[in-house]
Amino acid sequence: MIRIVQSFYVKSAANPADYPASAYPEFAFCGRSNVGKSTLINLLTNHHQLAKTSSHPGKTRLLNFFLIRYKDDDQGTEGRLQFTDLPGYGFAEASLVEQEKWRRMISHYFEQREQLRGIIVLVDIRHPADEKDILMLELLRLRGIDHCVVATKADKIGTTKRAKTLLLLAKGLGLKEEPIFPVSALNNTGLDALFGWLSQRLS
After folding, report:
1. At residue 186, does pLDDT exceed 80?
2. Which domain does 132 fall in, by range?
3. Any idea what the Cα angle at residue 72 is, between residues 70 and 75, rounded to 5°?
4. Are strands 77-85 and 63-72 parallel, antiparallel or unpaired?
5. How far apart, in whole angstroms, are the C-alpha atoms of residue 102 and residue 29?
6. What is the pLDDT of residues 87-138, one digit of tens each?
7. What distance in Å separates the CA atoms of residue 35 and residue 88, rounded to the nearest whole number?
8. Using alpha carbons only, what angle is made at residue 64 by residues 123 and 66, rounded to the nearest 5 degrees?
9. What is the distance between the alpha carbons of residues 71 and 78, in angstroms, rounded to a whole number?
């Protein structure tokens, strides 16, 4: 399994012409605004100021690219990959023009980022399946893009209720083969399964 040893912010971009050139495998993080994408990236990299977090939903309206150096102690190897923080969807104050701009930005990214290995879709474990998350997952299936789901704020659900809550959430989201991982940033738990998922897609 991999462990991240170094991470850097590369740049932010809206258009494919401005994406950073890269030959490294890439994983993108998407979800509703304020679901915790930046927090999860900071947690995975153990770099708490890498991705900027905000209390204002919808503040991230560009694609943010990060370069990651990792080691695989099992294989005795090391390598590089890239994380991309996608703009959040569903912020209430966004105009129709901004929502259409978001849709085009995401579509261009999915179509043109050839090194994309997988998408991590974040949802809040405390809430029932959301229509926008369901639509995103359907889009990923239609495009044949590998993905998993991370249920954030897992510490807010009691240990005895967590398995049932995940089962109901997975059913509501229409998950079939896709894994769902409960993660708590507060308790720093649930990352091993996600690191395992990432490692499988690097081999």
Report:
1. yes
2. 2-200
3. 150
4. antiparallel
5. 15
6. 988 765 667 788 888 889 999 999 999 999 999 999 999 999 999 999 999 9
7. 8
8. 100
9. 4
Copy the structure tokens of residue 40. Answer: 């999860």
Q: Residue 58: pLDDT above 70?
A: no
Alpha carbons 201 and 196: distance in angstroms, whole number: 9
Phi, psi of 24 (to 5 degrees): -90, 150
What domain count does the chain have? 1
User: Given this model, what pLDDT does residue 149 score?
Assistant: 98
Contact 182, 125 (CB under 8 A): yes
What b/e readout covers 45-63, taking b as 16+ CB neighbours within 10 angstroms?
Answer: bebeebbeeeeebbebbeb
| pLDDT tens digits for range 66-101 | 999 999 998 899 999 999 999 988 765 667 788 888
CB 35 within 8 A of CB 123: yes
Q: What local confidence, expressed as pLDDT, does residue 52 receive?
A: 79
pTM of the prediction?
A: 0.93
Residues 6+ apart with CB under 8 A from 49: 42
User: Which residue from 28, 47, 46 is spatially nearest to 87, judged by alpha carbons?
Assistant: 28
Q: CATH no. for residue 53? A: 3.40.50.300
Tokens linked to 50: 């890498």
